């Protein structure tokens, strides 16, 4: 069985609502997003279309729009919305004492 690995990636003070932040863990680029309701989403930061950096995209509701060609990705599921297709990996996030951890 693959054991999830919990990695500290940021402090809450580094996150701004609706502004993505890119963190790098091992060989993965992860986009962190602080949502309006205070939840934090983590997805693979690399757009499945042509590698756009999702952390630089515009957040609206629970979606992020890729900064390169505006594909719309659901931050809850990682699924690219129609008419485009594809998906990015999503990761579980835990906050302990204002430190943000991502489970890989
Ligand atoms: S690279 Fe993201 S929409 Fe094209």
Automatic annotation (TrEMBL):
The keyword Transcription does not apply. Gene3D superfamilies: Rieske [2Fe-2S] iron-sulphur domain. It holds the Pfam family Rieske_2. Residues 7-102 form the Rieske domain. One of its GO terms (biological process) is nitrate assimilation. The keyword Cytoplasm does not apply. One of its GO terms (molecular function) is metal ion binding. Keywords: 2Fe-2S, Iron, Iron-sulfur, Metal-binding, Nitrate assimilation, Oxidoreductase. InterPro entries: Rieske-like_NirD, Rieske_2Fe-2S, Rieske_2Fe-2S_sf. This is Nitrite reductase (NAD(P)H) small subunit. It comes from Staphylococcus rostri. The lineage of its organism: Bacteria, Bacillati, Bacillota, Bacilli, Bacillales.
């Amino acid at each position: 069985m693959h054991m999830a690995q919990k990695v500290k990636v940021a402090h809450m003070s580094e996150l701004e609502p609706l502004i993505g932040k890119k963190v790098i863990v091992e060989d993965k680029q992860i986009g962190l997003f602080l949502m309006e309701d205070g939840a934090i989403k983590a997805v693979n930061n690399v757009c499945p279309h042509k590698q756009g950096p999702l952390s630089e995209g515009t957040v609206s509701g629970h979606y992020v729009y890729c900064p390169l060609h505006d594909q719309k990705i659901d931050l809850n599921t990682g699924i690219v919305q129609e008419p485009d297709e594809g998906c990015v990996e999503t990761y579980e996030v835990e906050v302990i004492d204002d430190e943000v951890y991502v489970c890989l």
